[in-house]
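Example record for the data management plan.
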Amino acid sequence: MGDLTLRGGVFLAPFHPIDDDPTLAIRRDLELVEWLDRLGYEEAWIGEHHSAGFEIISSPELFIAAAAERTKRIKLGTGVVSLPYHNPLMTANRIVQLDHMTMGRVMFGAGPGLLTSDAMMLGIDPLQQRDRMVEALDVILRLFRGETVTETSDWYTLQDAKLHLLPYTRPYPEVAVASTVTPSGGRAAGKYDLGMLCVAATQTDGFNALDVNWKVANEIAAEHGRKMDAGRLRLVGPMHVAATREEARANARFGFDKWFDYFQRINPARFANLPKGDPLDILVAAGGIVVGTPADAIAQIERLQAKQGEFGCFLQLAHNWADWEATKKSYELYARYVVPHFRGANRHRAESLDWVTTHNQELLAMSTAAAQAMFAKHKAERDAKEKGKAAE
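Corresponding structural encoding:
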């Protein structure tokens, strides 16, 4: 597609069925990030949710602090901090502390908050969430830059607010904003020069909005004299990979129905227009999910590239459709076969093999001649030695 090297990562909401032990589930999430680090994945983004029982990480910062001590190189992002739920000074301080604790491996993902039930418990009108996200984001970025902020809104008051610890990363950690269907994410990314997390990239509405929201971001950025960086554009989609499609489908039967039922409960409109039949098969056929082989994963990403253009990172939506061992294998197969496809990691190996194949007759002749010469040399040496013995 271009000069960008596609990075790989995971978007960990997470999704854990309510019949699974929550303590063990969170421990597996930490093990997953360790596994991804070992496999060479570049990024892991951790969600924030406070209700509905499935997405059970309420503080991505706490999770990142633990994961950072278990890993070596993978970057860890908040995916996302729901800004209307937090005082912006407190949010800025937590991210800066993590930036120092991870020595620059933290990324700051921000959003308005996904679950309406979270906002309801906090007494927040959902109609206010996107505006409050932008208000908080503006303050946080000013604090990151070392500014002193005095500001009163209808939901926070800051008086001579200033970070007493500047970021480890200069000028500050990478910041990305969530984007789904509405243009709010693209508008904020363009205005403040941020990355984008397209968290619904393979859903029908989210897929259709990809190039639209990217266009919005670029238009707003141009108004501020900037150009959007496609390397900071991340697309999220669910997939499970196995050696065959049949094996992948059998694996996914372990937990897919519980995952699907969860969304039917919290957002019935998401899959309201599905035709009759097995939702797993229908969603695979529609391109909403991948349950198949590494080749199917490659085809999905190429489909996204055809729609979006270049983007910097594909994040697999962690879903726990399969059991633990099959889940780990899926991420391994992706790292072994999908990642090198997009990085061109094996191009020179293939060219070398092709060259050898093309010249194999010539090379075989040279090898045969060398072997024959060695036999002849050996025979000549032995014959000369025997003649010497005879002369004695």
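Summary line stored alongside the record: The chain is about 50% helix and 15% strand.
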